[in-house]
Amino acid sequence: MTIIEATVAWLADPASWTGAAGIPSRLLEHLALSSLSFGLAAALAIPAGLWIGHTGRFASVAVNLANFGRALPSLAVIALVLPITAAIDPQLGFRVYPTLVAMVVLAVPPILVNTQAGIAGVDRDLVEAARAMGMREAQVVRRVEVPLALPAITAGLRSAAVQIVATATLGAIFGAGGLGRYLVEGIAQRDDGMTFGGVVLVAGLALSIEAVFVLVQRLIRSPGVVRMRVGNASRAPA
After folding, report:
1. Contacts 24+ apart (CB under 8 A), 23-26
2. Rounded (10°) angle between helices 97-120 and 74-88
3. How many other CB atoms are there within 10 angstroms of residue 85's CB atom?
4. With a cut of 50, which residues of the chain have pLDDT below it?
5. Which residues lie closer than 8 Å to 187 by C-beta, 6 or more apart?
6. What's the number of domains the chain is made of?
7. For the purposes of burial, counting CB atoms within 10 Å of the CB of 199, is it exposed (0-12), middle (13-18) or buried (19 or more)?
8. Spatial separation of the C-alpha atoms in residues 113 and 50, rounded to whole Å
9. CATH number where 219 lies
10. pLDDT value at position 51?
């Protein structure tokens, strides 16, 4: 039996779709871990990116730190964090928290850099016009800069989401759930169908997330939406 035949047979097997180790359960585990990582990264990176982009302060420091974060291998981050989190919580601190931290470290740089670049790239004339209308700085950010920077911010979110979904499989090495369990267990059992079935599922999920963000970006960049955002930004009341 070829690898393709074994993969199709495993995916078509009803047993692969039932129980706690079935595909639906593993998919939910993968989405839960990925969503939590994505949410934490966005909560950290977006406010920081907005502030840096708006004020122009520490922009070079933020970019350098982001590049450093991108250069860190996720598996190395997990290995560094694991002894600390395991000492705090022997269960989740070994199986979940290290992967969570690694995914946040992975996702913060693209969100931070794109948010900062998007805000900094907004036409300064519009920003000054908003200030002249009596807007406070928070209002300038919320009503003018963020609407016009949405394409760049969304691009950063898209990159982070796809990277998280694709890399969350590493957590399975340390006992975390998710689709990565199929790769770990498939290799351990020498089951090519399970191994490559897991690869297909992870790839399919990543491509699905990518497609959703591509659709969102196209909607944001449509001429009507762009005109609406620019119009709202130019005449937003104080």
Report:
1. 23/201, 25/177, 26/177, 26/178, 26/179, 26/181, 26/182, 26/201
2. 130
3. 20
4. 238
5. 195
6. 1
7. middle
8. 10
9. 1.10.3720.10
10. 93
Q: Give me the domain span that covers residue 71.
A: 3-235
Whole-angstrom Cα distance, residue 119 to residue 153? 9
Element (H, E) at 183: helix 180-189
- Token couple for 96: 């979940």
pTM across the whole model: 0.87
CA-CA-CA-CA torsion sign (116, 118, 124, 129) = negative
Question: How far is the C-alpha of 119 from the C-alpha of 135, rounded, in Å?
Answer: 17
Residues 24-54 as b/e (b if ≥16 CB within 10 A, e otherwise) read ebbbebbbebbeebbebbbeebbebbbbbbb
Tell me what pLDDT residue 226 has.
52
Q: What is the dihedral of CA 183, 189, 192, 195, to 10 degrees?
A: -10
Q: Give the C-alpha separation, 230 to 40, whole Å.
A: 30
Read off the tokens for 38: 């994505």
> 123 by DSSP, 3-state: which?
coil
pLDDT of residue 191: 92
**Angle, CA of 98, 177 and 172, to the nearest 5°:** 60
Q: Could you give the CA distance from residue 185 to residue 166 in angstroms, rounded to a whole number?
A: 18
Q: Over the stretch 6-22, which tens digit does the pLDDT of each residue have? A: 999 999 999 999 988 89
For residue 146, give Cα distances in angstroms to 143, 153, 162, 168, 227. 7, 8, 23, 30, 15
Q: Report yes or no: 189 and 198 within 8 Å, Cβ to Cβ.
A: no
